[in-house]
Amino acid sequence: MALIDGRFCIDRWEASLVDESGAEHSPYHPLNGAKVRAVSRAGVVPQAYVSQYEARQACERAGKHLCATQEWVDACMGARPPKRTYPYGKDKRGGACNDHYAGGHPVLVLHPGSRRRDATTLNDPRINQLPGSVAKTGAFEACVTPDGVFDMVGNLLEWTNGQTRPLLMGGHYVDSVENGNGCMYVTPDHGEHYHDYTTGFRCCARPREGGPVQTAPVSPETGDAAPPTRPDPVPVASASAGPDQPKAPPFALDPTEARKAPRSFTNPFGYLPHPKPPPYDPPDAPCPVDMVLVAGRRCAENQQVCKGWVDAPGMPQRACGEFELPTRCLGKRAAMRFCIDKLEFTAPGETLPLTYVSWPEAQLLCGAMGKRLCYEREWEFACEGEDGLPYPYGYKREGSRCNHDRDNLFVDGDRLVDQRVAADSLPECKSPFGVLNMVGNVDEWVHRTENQAPRRSILRGGWWLTGRNRCRAATDSHTEAYAGAQTGFRCCKAAR
Hints:
By secondary structure, the protein is α+β, with helices and mostly antiparallel strands. The chain is built from eight helices and 25 strands. The strands form eight sheets. The chain has a four-stranded antiparallel beta sheet, sandwiched between helices. The N and C termini lie far apart (about 70 Å).
């Protein structure tokens, strides 16, 4: 281990694992309940396919703890000014770290032409055995901090204990730029039991007794070092806050106290609002006053041809710069007629759409207004119209119209910048039926009716991050219990 700033120790190399007998666990296979402990060694393939929960246990069995995010960042960037962006310095050096997979995307190497992103595919043990994928620890000799800590950028993502939730840091061998540069690369969207071919870790520890004191989080009940274990949402800072303005404070770590306040971006544990059913005006209107009538014939299967993707090199193709026109209908058309909320759901008295909402909570809030969560086919038709538009406004991607393709996602390591905008503030982000903000701003829960619990929950439209921000794309990797900084919704109901 290396001593950082006299305060804590950190493993010099990404962790590998041994079982209770000392036998090595394969770095290419998930643990599947195996009891293992972490070891830090040079010249071995580090352990991937590991969850944060498993990493934390492996560190504890080694007499250490899973690094707090701030510990990890201090080790990578330096604990005192001037800070580094990369382990070795301020400016990026091509080839210094294992952060660019020359073969494209490894999943596509194994499954050419496939868009599979399910758990089985992403945990395929063959992925990290492809040539040029995961490197042995310390193999990239230039990817080292002044304190002698290797591979903090690239190779594998590394689990840490964020202030209030698990975070994956540093990028991996396919990408180290999509979610921040170098030491500031942060993936915040996975819970403590998630794992795939990119997830690894390293451990931290207190210095030897009598030496400096370490700075791991301290339990308010016992006073002992106790990194938080619950995958809670992250605290945030206001996107409008300037350098002289205070950042929004973290929400209370005690869920009991937090539930006494309303649900908000800074209080994901808060109670839900109490909306009321909207009126019909005039009384014989087909939809309530806050909804839009959608009526027409929907094509079940569209052909949308992308003229050029704008994703970072080597990343999956998710963001298309422009599609060919017109969209071709390859399937049957069916008549549809229903009502959909014109705006993303916003709590009474608020101006920004509500987030940190799970799929069942969205159903509950829709039901309180005499509505229901939109069926996926309804949401899709309301977004693209009869012409099957890739984006609600047309064929060419324009992130400024719909509040997506933002950057600067994080400040202070793991504080998420709130980049929502008011639901009615982007009049150009309008679908052919006049529905606003169906792409970007916040992800929207819908109901995939052909699925069974707990996989009925689908997110459509994307959020302010660059990604699946269009009408036909969907995120299906979260269960119904998931609630994140980006999860919102709107409602539908039958038209009269």
